[in-house]
User: What shape does this take?
Amino acid sequence: MDLITILNRCHRFPGFVYQGARFGPTGRTIEVLVRNRVGSAAACSLCQQPAPGYDHLPQRRFEFIPLWGFLVVFLYSMRRVSCKPCGVVVVEQVPWASGKHHLTKAYMQFLANWARKLSWQETADTFRTSWDKVCHSVEYVVQWGLEHRTLAPIRAIGVDEIQYAKGHKYLTLVYQIDAGATRLLWVGKERTMKAFRGFFTMIGAELSSKIEFVCSDMWKAYLQVIGKECPQALNILDRFHIVAKMNEAVDDVRAGEARQMARDGYEPLLKKSRWCVLKRKKNLTPKQKIRLRDLLRYNLKTVRAYLLKEDFQHFWTYNSPQWAGRFLDFWCGQAMRSRIEPMKKIARTLRAHRELLLNYFKARKLYSSGIVEGLNNKAKVTMRKSYGFRTFRILELALYHSLGKLPEPPLTHKFF
Assistant: This one.
């Protein structure tokens, strides 16, 4: 058994022959000579139809998957063909490479699979190649996957934004969150109506009309686009952001009251109490539980805001939209009478989005933003893995590659 036998077994192409193998001048490279089979016609790279030969170009190198620590390259003299249907003389299409890439398709897919596990620079260093070649490999696999992926059916989607660079630069990410099918569907630059509308333009009106559930936050631009593009869908507000805004309100009350007590010369009762009033009871440490118990003995605005926040947690335990709505109205009334401005502001926001909040219960609690937040964390890990990407295009490729669950080009052999 020799290298040519192995290549013929796992990476064979009709019309081409592996003529031989040799070590390169440095002794660190294996060069595999490839020639076209006698009598085989070349294929036009434009129409992929057989065409008569015109002439040969100088020998060209195509990098293949490294073997036993050796770099492997294919050496082949490309033929030019005179294609009558196209009316031009073009270089032939070879089955192991795409376009003008100097990497074989198998090697590009090999690098792209490793780039999903390691950073792109670590992948390049491991296989003694360059970052640019890893980038081209990922781009090839992602473009092929986007062209061959199946979008339908989409029943539920989640939309959110993440910051990807300094200077308030955001991405709009749209995920499919169906049971058993969670993937990134679309990446948009900025968090504007125009950016989000691009997603619905991409999937078309037919698929948009079949979306039943949409999970989003209270960003006005998203709500307007959802109401216009898929009015038949239940728009479920993001529970995570509601809880976050509630915590921000309580923290504002605590910070303001702590400053006022310091100015008036009172004992600093609220010192080191931030996480006591923001964390859930089950997550408090023993010291924080004692600190919270001592704090609850005082009639402070912070204590009243904390009790309102804890009382609101009962809202998520309801199953009936009617009873959940009654509780929401009752809680908002209490908050408005509390004379605590940050909590009153939260109550006004909840009242303005009352129907969207109740959609969570109309959907029987099957869909929430928890999946979206988990996918956002994976997106942030992808960005951190390379300490940030400098252009939107490269970041888009990395996100689709990591989260898109795209189909991959078929291979003649699966390399492990």
